[in-house]
Amino acid sequence: MNHSTIMEDLMLVLTVLFLFTSIASSSTTTISLENPTSPSTLAKKLISNFNLFPDRSVNIVEEVDGLRSSTENKLVEKRFKFPNFVDPKGASIDDLGHHAGYYKIEHSHAARMFYFFFESRGRKTDPVVIWLTGGPGCSSELALFYENGPFKIEKNSSLVWNEYGWDQASNLLFVDQPTGTGFSYSSDKRDIRHNEQGVSDDLYDFLQAFFKEHPEFVKNEFYITGESYAGHYIPAFAARVHEGNKAKEGIHINLKGFAIGNGLTDPLVQYKAYTDYALDMELIKESDYKNINKRLPECETAIKLCGTDGTTACMAAYMACNTIFSSIKAIAGNINHYDIRKQCEGSLCYDFSDMENLLSKKSVKDALGVGDIDFVSCSPVVYQAMIMDWMRNLEAGIPHLLEDGIKLLVYAGEYDLICNWLGNSRWVHAMEWSGQKEFVASPDVSFEVDGSEAGLFKTHGPLSFLKVHDAGHMVPMDQPKAALSMLKRWTSGSLSESAAEPEPIVSSM
Question: Which residue has the higher pLDDT, 20 or 143?
Fold first, then answer.
């Protein structure tokens, strides 16, 4: 890039920041840590929205003895059984096949990644599926206990089987990442990740160690899944695995596909869809629509400069574009932006405190082997560290994966505002690849579960898009049966074919 181009880009960034400052000034706000659109304030709001108040903002701790104390780049893993798990059959630890462990991340100073591994309640030959929660900086235990994990939490903190857990049809991994999230930690602040390169390299190294520890699963089909900000993690991670396979770096990972649920993947397309979705769902009026859309040009300019690299324009884009979302929220009132059918009660939208209470119990920590580590549900430090990554376009690397036959499923609950189905549908349709024309021309087909329409989907070759009815941001929480059916049918090759319903839980033990 020549000097004149650099100067032109710098001027555009400064213009965007000036325009954003003008907008902020005209609405009697200033750009500061207390600005409602600043990274610090948004991070705090994220935590309060989920009713999560960790003692630590990130797990940077001194090393201690125990399961976490390995000095080698390998897994330290144990089979376990939650002490408050109510199992009608009284299955033993060996029968359950539930594992918890730490991996000392190879390319880090002192980072250790915590994970859960639940062997399939069906067959060991079922696919290996990894789930990544977004945030960025939110623990995958949110999904484990409230969405698609083996358990549901009862009000008395006891655990019971989740009838529609994805371990019914897969060998299921939940990983706390990036470093500092959940039970993952480091004793060195340099291990906090700032981009998808660091995130995907850590995950790839973890997989290599995992399959070395569990060679019996190496030949199983492997799928990457997740939601929300994982719309960034997942394409980067899938590309890293595919790259490693082609370069014969280590153990060949049998990657067959990746699925993004209500994700943020292509901000340029998705931020432009906010006002259209809000108007369609009657959250704003036509006059509001026109006023808010006046802010789109500076948002688009900064996103284009941000591109795929994570430059300084990405911060300008983050600040300018989030005024669009916050303006819609201000007009719509006290709605839950993860599910617009619901109201936020007070300052909270969802209450996940049962999980917090569960994972703070000494008996549970002892069972998991995490020692005195504090569980960090959503880390504002990790969130802020990834701010420069936020507006990057992660769609750019997907066509190459499709061309090599790696399947992609993008699914979205229809009542989510923050990563709405309309924006997701638009970037999927706009993506340029060899099958784009045929995909766009493909008809919408009913996705039926138990004879009723649970959604609409279209598919061509390796690409599928599914709009899920009666669901918000967290599809497996709102429509657990449909989500399990989706997983089974997609991994087996066709969303259009009915999948056999899971057998009663007790018979699988």
Answer: 143
